[in-house]
Amino acid sequence: MLNWKRSWLALVLLLCASAGGEVRPLTILHIDDIHGHISPSEQGMGGFAYLATAIRRERANCPECILLNAGDLVQGTPVSTIFHGLPVFELANLLGFDAATLGNHDFDYGWMQARKFIETANYPMVSANVVGADNRLFARPYIILNVNGLRVAVIGALTDDMKNLSTPKLMEEWHTVPVVATARRYAAELKDKSDLIVLLAHVTGPEEREFLDSATEIPVIVTGHLHNGLEHEMTCDGRVLVRVKAYGEELGRLDLKVDTEKKAPVSWTWKRIAIDDSKMEPAADVAPKVKRWEDEVTARVDRPLAVSRKTFSHAEVKALIEQAMRDETGADFAFMNGGGVRDGLPEGQLRERNIWNIMPFDDRVVIAKVKGSDLPAVVLGGRKPDPDREYTLAATDFTAANQSAASQLRSTGLEFGDDVGILRDLLIDWCRKKKAIE
Ligand SMILES: [Zn+2]
What range does the domain containing 156 cover? Predict the structure, then answer.
C-alpha cells in the first residue's frame, strides 16, 4: 500500500513537471569559417592549440555545454589546399565538437572528399538540404543531443546560393533544396522529439534574416559563411541568432535558459571570447600535432617548381598570371587585378612558396562568355575583337564580383559562370609545365 502510494505520488509529480515545464540551462559554444587556420595568425590570434585551451576552459564545470561548428572548416591555408582538407578535420577531432554542419567550401575538393570529412569527423556532421538526384540525403539531416537531460535537436543547413559557390564538376548529382523550407519542415517534425531546436546553418545574410524573421519553429540559430562576427546577437520575437568572426579568432558562448514546455529560451546572454594567444597557453596535446602538419607544409611548399630567367615586378607578374589563365583555361582573354598580385618573382630557382606569396588568397578562376563588342577595354591589350563574335574571358571570382570598380573591368552585368578552380593551383601547374619562366 505504501509502495503504491509512493509510486502514485511520484507519477503525479512527474506529470506536473512535464505539464508545467521547467527552465533548464543550455550553453552553446560555437565557431564558424575556420578555413584551415590550424596555426595562429600573424597577429597572434586563433590556432587550434589555443582554441582548444579556450574551449576546455569554457567547458570546465559546464555539463550543459555543447560545441558546434557552422561550416567551412577547410580551404584557405596551404595545409588545407595541399592535403585537400583532411588534416584540418583530423585536428578538429581534438577540439571536442558535439555537431557540425558543412559549408560551401567543405565541397571545394569535391563531394567525395566531403564524404571523407564526414567519415573522419568524430562528431556528427548534419546537413538537411543537400540531396542527390533521387532526393537521398548527403549527410544526416539532424542529431538529437542529450545535454544534461535536455534534448537538443541540431538541424544542419547549407545556403541556397550553393549553385553559385561551387561547380557541377565538384558536386555532380548533389545539390541543395530550398534551405528555409527544408529546415522548417524538419523543425516541425522534431518538435515532439526534443526540448529545443537549434539550427546550425552555413547561410548568406539574407537567409539569416529570413530564418530569424519567419522560421517560428526555430528559436535558436547558429550561423557561419559571413566572416565578420556579429557585434550583438540578432533577435526577433524571442528567437536568437549568433555568429562569430572567422579563422578561429573568436569563440562564441550563448548561455540559454530553456523553457521545456514552450521549447524556447526564456532568456540568454551571448559573448564572443577573443582567442588572443598572448593571454593563454597552447593545449599541450594539440600543439605538437599542429606543428607536425605545418612541418609537412614547409617541406611541400619549399619544393622546387621552375626556374625564373629574370626578376619579375608586380606588373610583370600580373601579365604572367593572365598568360597562365589563358593557357590553362583556353580562354581568349584574361584579366588579373593588379591589387591581387601580392609579390614579384625573384630570378633563379622558384619554389611553390613563391606562388603562395604572389597569391595567398583562395581566388578562383571563372569564365564569362562575352560578345566582342562587350569586352572590357582593359582586357584587349591592343587586339581588335570581332564585335559580333562570342569570346571567353577568364578572371578571378573576386574580379567578377567587383567588376565595375576602376581597378577591375569597369564593366557591369558580365556573367561569369564556369568555375575552373583555385588560381594559385592553376599558376603552380602552369609553372611546373613551363619549367622556365621568361
Ligand atoms: Zn561559406
Answer: 20-294
